[in-house]
Amino acid sequence: MECDVLVVGAGVLGLSSAYHIKRRDPSKRVVVIERLGGPGQGNTAKSMGAFRNIFTSETNYLLTDSTIDWLLHLQGDLGHDLRLHMIGYLWLFSEPQYRRLSGPLSKIKARGTETTTYEEDELRRIIPDLVTDFSEDEEADLMGLEEVSYGVLGHKCGSLDADALARSYERLFLELGGEVHYGTEARRLLLKPREELGIPGEPFIWQESGIAGAETTRGVIEAETTVVACGAWAEVILSPIGLESFTRPKKRQLFAFNDPKLSRLINTKGLNSDDALPLTILPKAGIHMRTEVSERSIWLGCADGLGRGFGLEEDPQPEEDYYGNNIYHALVRYFPCFSDVRPINSWAGQYDINSLDETPVIYSGGGIVYVGASSGSGIMKSDALGRIAAANYYGEEESELYGGHRFRVADLGVKSRHVEHEAFVL
Amino acid sequence: MECDILVIGAGVLGLSSAFYLKKRDPTRKVTVVERLGGPGQGNSAKSEGAFRNLFTGEANYLLADSTIDWFTHLERDLGYDLKLNRTGYMWLFSEDQHSSAKEAVDAMARHGAEIATYGGEEIKTMIPDLVTDFEEDEEAELLELEPVDVGVFGRKCGSLDADSLVRSYEREFLKLGGEVQYGTEAKRLLHRPVSELGIPGEPFVWQESRIAGAETSKGTILAETTVVACGAWAERLLDPVGFDPLMRAKKRQLFAFKDPKLGGLLKVSGLNEEGVLPLTVLPRAGIYLKAELTEGSIWLGCADDLGRRFELEDDPQAEEDYYSNNIYHALVKYLPCFADIRPVNSWAGQYDINSFDETPIVEPGPGIIYVGASSGSGIMKSDALARIVDAAYEEEPEAELYGGRRFRVSDIGVKNRKIERESLVI
Questions:
Q1: How far apart are CA B36 and CA B39, in angstroms?
Q2: DSSP β-ladder status, A179-181 and A30-33
Q3: Can you give the pLDDT at residue B194?
Q4: How confident is the model at residue B424 (pLDDT cuts 50, 70, 90)?
Q5: Domain for residue B21, yes or no?
Q6: CA nearest A310: which of B184, B200, B248?
Q7: Do B122 and B187 share a structural domain?
Q8: pLDDT score of B223
Q9: Whether B202 and B329 share a structural domain
Q10: Using the beta-carbon criterion (under 8 Å), do A242 and B207 form an inter-chain contact?
């Protein structure tokens, strides 16, 4: 089979890139292949499904803010049901944390990003289940838990159904005549000389060579350009040809709770129009949770750093003990309502983390466009990244993001990379 | 066993770091562990043993230039025989290549590197065996080989015996009372809470934790600080604890030749006192070769990029075909004296390549300092990197390099990295 553009991966980044490439020139034959049986079934559907425009780095802000506008447009104007809820992001800080982040926070506010800061007593009034003060709790003290002195709420933040978003990109792509082949795994990229000489052993090191498509489980697909957008799995096909994915995979687990003891927390009033707990980040260990509005349940995760190994897994599984004998100890100090409550469901996915600057990478060259290293924020940047991948494919210096802002394509590349280090990492 | 500082890896970076850490305070117990039987037996001894101060990035220039001065000091003042020579580095360019490399060469000169530029005719006089012009050679044109129009020559460049360098660091370290345990493999890093609570399951995500030493093939070694300096193998220790080594391993092969037909390359006029071929980089495919004075032989390697897989191997081997049915085709066009000559020896090592900016990383973390990602220039930057490791250990903002120049430690770390990407990479 032959095509103009072969996209490897039908997750949110693969389908968004495919859609924007096809949208720009519907006469191109754009083929997406995916080893799983449907859109977004890799790590996209396993994500927390949260989005925010609260980032210190200008790059991250532009990528998310424009994507959020696009998500609102998709649901509001184009009628795609993404189960989008602007429930907000609520950071809980101790006094020293708040002071440390005052610089980054004023930078965020200076952009005009809408935020509200709450003091401890207001937080306790709005979220009566939250313990902010451990002066009576010797054990919490012994555990070194930080008290809660401030809450910062970002308003242009919320949650969506990641699966619905992947399907939405798929629908837009298919409507333009795009092709998606599920159950088709890219086994290896084809490296070919630009001019074949017909000598055994090609491509030689002294030949100009490039990627000419992929060998898949359903045969060879030759392509002018191959877009590698398979997230945490990118290294499996890039490393054998000596290309970098600039990422290492790390498992992330999610636990869902639905218990009468949590109903007041689930239905938190006064922070958003959904009467839901915003995506709330505890001051310790990157523990975060939110109300899943459609189920009226709580989803909880944890961004563990040192101690959580890097490593690609085919089918990552949540660990029972990780909640029951780890997160739980700290969680129950802040939210005693979780006492003896067990998750009703749990699952795990993988982040593709770029540890150097926690920002996605898009580069092109030698017949390839790579989009990845999204570091846990691929969904909330999906539209902007798809547009930048398309601009890369069309050889343009700038990409027009949704809403009209122009973004320098090379800024997310490698050779002339220009991104700031992010201070607001989960 | 317990020590103050455990250094993992007795290659050039491990031993040089151990030396400066011990030198700072000889009462410290500094222990080096190495899985192999002697110093530098991993990738250090398998390198080309070449050094240069020609780098486009200011940081890389400082690291290499000061380390080269240290080499000279070791030989001249401290009496070590490193088999050091200053035979130079010669980049051969076509006219097009030279004009696109012009900015890079200007940057090198701006740092203070001593550079001479030669025209094709002059080069032809100095290296009579070199073919600079393929007008008569249809086959070379079919291979699209670039002619040689310009040679850019760096004088403060040359080669040394990597093994002798590693032994010099080892000896200085041992003289101060340092300990080295060979045949001792670090199996995994110990990840422990800063304050143990005595509950099963520690360290928990909400605990402050640190690296507390390593489990080795000869028992557990507890250390206040663990320095991970095991080059391409660093990922085996760092990935499991979720500390990103920000590099991937790539095989590099070397081939040695000794044949009367190559005598002309050992009698080159006008470039160096020794009258031999400098480390010479051909205009195509990153093929480079140098005269190895001690053996009267020629060493040849190739920096293959696209198509050469990233992969960590325990015992990488040179591939017969890689020379004879790949490099050879291009090499013999530039240097017909290689016709029908087979290598007398060949071996392979591994680069630990940081593809982001091709520059090493020194990154401290809780209980750990990582030095690596040296991207093929670890030997020629060894002394500077070790001094930076020592400064990082002392939490000093700047390191003093040999000769007195100062280097900001955080520039070469991750969080506040300030490194220009190297634009002329071999």
A1: 8
A2: parallel
A3: 96
A4: confident
A5: yes
A6: B248
A7: no
A8: 98
A9: no
A10: no
Q: Which of B330, B351, B372 is the last residue of a domain?
A: B351
| Long-range CB contact pairs, B189-192, < 8 A, 24+ | B189/B213, B189/B214, B189/B226, B189/B228, B189/B237, B189/B238, B189/B240, B189/B241, B189/B368, B190/B214, B190/B215, B190/B220, B190/B222, B191/A306, B191/A307, B191/B241
Q: Are A382 and A12 in contact (CB under 8 A)?
A: yes
Alpha carbon A71 to its chain's center: 14
- Shared domain check, B299 and B217: no
**Residue B240 at interface with chain A, using a CB cutoff of 8 Å:** yes
- Window 80-109 of A, Cβ < 8 Å to B: none
Tokens of A308: 């959580």
| B293 and B347 fall within a common domain | yes
**Do B57 and B107 share a structural domain?**
no
A198 part of contact set with chain B, CB < 8 Å = no
CA A5 – CA A23 distance, rounded (Å): 13
Whether the pLDDT of residue B379 is over 80: the answer is yes
A355-399: pLDDT as tens digits: 999 999 999 999 999 999 999 999 999 999 999 999 999 999 999
In B, minimum Cα distance to A361 occurs at B356
Name the B residues in 170-199 with CB < 8 Å from any A CB.
Answer: 191, 195, 197
Contact partners, residue B385, CB within 8 Å, separation at least 6? B13, B16, B17, B63, B360, B362, B371, B374, B378
Q: Note whether B302 contacts A: Cβ–Cβ < 8 A.
A: yes
Residue B28 lies in a domain: yes
Based on the domain organization, do B170 and B67 belong to the same domain? yes
Sign of CA dihedral A200, A205, A211, A215: positive
Task: Please report how the helices A12-24 and A162-175 are oriented relative to each other, as an axis angle in degrees rounded to 10.
Answer: 30
> Is position B396 within any domain?
yes
Confidence of residue A169 (pLDDT cuts 50, 70, 90): very high
Shortest distance, CA A421 to any CA of chain B (angstroms): 7
Q: How far is B285 from chain A (nearest CA, A)?
A: 5
| pLDDT at residue A387, as a whole number | 98
Instruction: Give the gap in angstroms from C-alpha B179 to the nearest C-alpha of chain A.
Output: 29
The C-alpha angle with vertex A333 and arms to A330 and A336, in degrees rounded to 5, equals 125
Of the residues B334, B351, B368, which one is the last residue of a structural domain? B351
The number of domains in chain B is 2
0.80 surpassed by pTM: yes
Q: Are B14 and B227 in contact (CB under 8 A)?
A: yes
**What does the mean pLDDT of chain A come to?**
96
Cβ separation A286–B205 shorter than 8 A: yes
Say if residue B394 is in the same domain as residue B270: no
What range does the domain containing B116 cover? 89-154+249-351
Domains and CATH numbers, chain A: 2-52+162-247+356-412 (3.50.50.60), 89-155+249-350 (3.30.9.10)
Whichever domain contains B184, its CATH number is 3.50.50.60
Q: Residue range A229-247: average pLDDT? A: 97
The pLDDT, as a whole number, for residue B81 is 97
CB of A145 within 8 Å of a chain B CB? The answer is yes
Pick among B96, B100, B206, B416 to test the A interface (most A CBs inside 10 A): B206
**Cβ-based neighbours of A396, under 8 Å, separated by 6 or more:** A409
Per the CB < 8 Å rule, is B242 touching A306? yes
Half-sphere exposure of B5 (CA within 13 A, CB side): 29
Residues B186 and B268 in one domain: no
Q: Tell me the pLDDT tens digit for each residue of B95-153.
A: 999 999 999 999 999 999 999 999 999 999 999 999 999 998 999 988 899 999 999 99
Task: Determine contact: A152 vs chain B, CB below 8 A.
Answer: no
Nearest CA in chain B to A413: B356
* Gap between the Cα atoms of B253 and A220, Å rounded: 32
Look at residue B60 in the predicted model and tell me its pLDDT. 96
**Which of A206, A286, A329 faces B204 most closely, judged by CB atoms?**
A329
